[in-house]
Automatic annotation (TrEMBL):
Belongs to the IMPACT family. Translational regulator that ensures constant high levels of translation upon a variety of stress conditions, such as amino acid starvation, UV-C irradiation, proteasome inhibitor treatment and glucose deprivation. Plays a role as a negative regulator of the EIF2AK4/GCN2 kinase activity; impairs GCN1-mediated EIF2AK4/GCN2 activation, and hence EIF2AK4/GCN2-mediated eIF-2-alpha phosphorylation and subsequent down-regulation of protein synthesis. The chain crosses the membrane at residues 20-38, 45-66. Keywords: Cytoplasm, Differentiation, Membrane, Neurogenesis, Repressor, Stress response, Translation regulation, Transmembrane, Transmembrane helix. It comes from the Eukaryota. It is found in: Cytoplasm. This is Protein IMPACT. GO terms for molecular function: actin binding; protein sequestering activity; ribosome binding. GO terms for cellular component: cytoplasm.
Length: 355
């Protein structure tokens, strides 16, 4: 059985079940920490059977102990690279790079830990990278699933992270330059729901914007105030809108950059946005949108803003995928989040609801 290096209490019962590993942990860690070193005997036997009863009647609690310890270990090892998306629903994300100082290849691994993990169920995972082609996804996914099969019942997130890092290092050694993101954009069918793999483009979205800043836009240097809407949660997916007043394109870039400084927003599954700026001199609207991997969502958001006739505003809707496919409902939630914050900030009084 492979030793992850994260769970030293497994050693006294190496090769046994997670239940026995937990008993080992509690006896050799918890009791020793209290200064009580137990020999084989009556008291040790009592504790042993108490733990067996705990395992029998509260297995979820027991395996949550495994998860808590693994999460603490990963947070300690990876520091700022490790991100808690939603502690209650056990959603986490880690940014993995080929090189910590000068990364060329970067990928985000997002995981959801079922209550049965690590005993009988693997983590639900998503691989997020704008350069990730379909074949890369399949190959990497197969590698992760092979690790799980070889280590059933064990904590495997550390092994997954280091396997992904190994792949990124190999890519870095083969290619002198980093990924060409523009060449890897893939079209997706509007009616297809995102699966466990998706394109991760949030940080590159900023670079993709083509801003032309003129001399009379000096007023745009100040960052507009950013408002945050009330989140909407459906089947473990969470949607939240963010809004900022903008009158120059540069302000759009500034607001997006500021939002992505928030680790939770930067690690969202999708950050969909649209903006409309009214040009007084030309009496026309400067407007654009971004799907960020959620096909057609940006266009739908911009269309909503056109219907509501709002102007000089940027709306960003972050979605954190919860592992359950929502189908068309995801578009309803995205637009309802946007509409709610537009009403909240008095950009419109329209009662339009999105279905």
């Amino acid at each position: 059985m492979t030793d992850t290096g994260l769970l030293p209490w497994r050693e006294p019962f190496e090769g046994t079940s997670p239940q026995m590993s937990l008993i080992s942990f509690l006896i050799f860690s918890g009791i020793i920490k209290q200064g009580i070193i137990l020999k084989r005997g009556f008291l040790n036997t009592i504790i042993f059977y108490i733990l067996l009863l705990l395992l029998k009647f509260s297995p979820v609690l027991v395996f949550n102990l495994f998860q808590i310890d693994e999460i603490e270990a990963l947070s300690s090892i990876y520091g700022d690279e490790w991100c808690v998306i939603d502690e209650e629903t056990r959603i986490f994300c880690i940014k993995i790079s080929d090189n910590l100082e000068k990364p060329k290849w970067t990928l985000c691994l997002q995981v959801i830990l079922p209550s049965e993990y690590p005993d009988t169920a693997p983590p639900i995972y998503q691989l997020n990278a704008p350069w990730l082609r379909e074949q890369d996804r399949v190959d990497l996914g197969n590698s992760l699933e092979e690790i799980y099969v070889q280590n059933i019942g064990e904590s495997i997130l550390y092994l997954w992270v280091e396997k992904i890092r190994e792949v990124l290092i190999e890519k870095s050694q083969i290619s002198e330059s980093g990924p060409d993101i523009k060449k890897t954009t893939e079209e997706k069918d509007v009616d297809c729901e995102d699966d466990y793999f998706f394109d991760y483009q949030s940080k590159n979205t900023i670079e993709a914007l083509d801003f032309v800043i003129t001399e009379n836009q000096s007023d745009a240097e100040e960052l507009p105030s950013i408002k945050h809407g009330v989140p909407i949660t459906d089947r473990r997916s969470t949607f939240q809108a963010h809004l900022a007043p903008v009158v120059f394109l540069k302000q759009v870039k500034m607001v997006l950059a500021k939002l992505y400084e928030n680790k939770k927003i930067a690690n969202a599954t999708h950050n969909i946005y649209a903006y409309r700026i009214y040009c007084e001199d030309r009496r026309t609207f400067l407007q654009d949108c971004e799907d960020d991997g959620e096909t057609a969502a940006g266009g739908r958001l911009l269309h909503l803003m056109q219907i509501l006739n709002v102007r000089n505003v940027l709306v960003v809707v972050s979605r954190w995928y919860g592992g359950i496919l929502l189908g068309p409902d995801r578009f309803k939630h995205i637009n309802n989040c946007a509409r709610n914050i537009l009403v909240q900030e008095n950009y419109t009084n329209s009662p339009v609801s999105c279905y």
